Amino acid sequence: MLLSVEGLSAGYSGADVIRSLDLRIDEGEVVALLGPNGAGKTTTLLALAGVLAPTSGTVRYRGAPLRGALHRRSRRGVSYISEQGSIFSRLTTLANLKLGAGRVEDALALFPELEPLLKRRAGLLSGGEQRMLALGRSLAAKPDLLLVDELSLGLAPLIVTRLLDALRAAADTGTAVLIVEQHASQVLSVSDRGHVLRRGRLAMSGTGAELLASSGELQAAYLSA
Ligand code: ATP
């Protein structure tokens, strides 16, 4: 097991938003963390990335406790992409890629679309191009675990498919992915397993196929949020 999370609680200003969460991620898996607005998905990622200190629970990575801030975790092979994409909008695409821990050529091999945009300021790229930049930069470093927040936010389904396919391919070559999404179906189609969060607790879990097949229950979990 790559990552195991037991009894994780975390929140803001002393009020827990997620409560007693249990999760595990095996090597090379894509795991989706779904749920309605405000369910605690981002909070879970922040706690796993080391941005937010948990109030209780244990997070073990390769059998040892996962501690410390984001940069320390990234040295252990854990990478995090925020909802904003974690890119520097005033820097060029190329400068952003150079800031990554992987090779620029590897990022461009994953997303050749970025090649003609290398000299452009990242802030001037389209939403989809910015996500490709963030994903290409992270994946080029070949992390063991990638935590991704709301990949599809505001993007056309075709671009989302392109990004999800890249994540699936990365998982198939050894990078485990935990992906947070509000919109379930596209992500589930590339996920090995999925969990649905509701009001800070796990409301449903299953394989990607099981969750896709139980769309009625899924909808109920969202509607009763
Ligand atoms: P969304 O799709 O809206 O991002 P989410 O499932 O990711 O939903 P979170 O962002 O984890 O949800 O937020 C869960 C709860 O925590 C919400 O009620 C939110 O208002 C609250 N919250 C989030 N960030 C903070 C913060 N910095 N300070 C205080 N409360 C916060």
TrEMBL record:
Answer yes or no on keyword Nucleotide-binding: yes
Keyword flag Translocase: no
Signal sequence range: none
Keywords attached to this entry: Amino-acid transport, ATP-binding, Nucleotide-binding, Transport
One Pfam family name is ABC_tran
Q: Which GO terms describe its molecular function?
A: ATP binding
CDD domains, per this entry? ABC_TM1139_LivF_branched (cd03224)
Residue ranges of every copy of the ABC transporter domain listed in the record: 3-224
The UniProt similarity line reads: Belongs to the ABC transporter superfamily.
Q: What is this protein called?
A: ABC transporter ATP-binding protein
From which source organism is this entry? Actinomadura chokoriensis
Which lineage ranks, top first, belong to the organism behind this chain?
Bacteria, Bacillati, Actinomycetota, Actinomycetes, Streptosporangiales
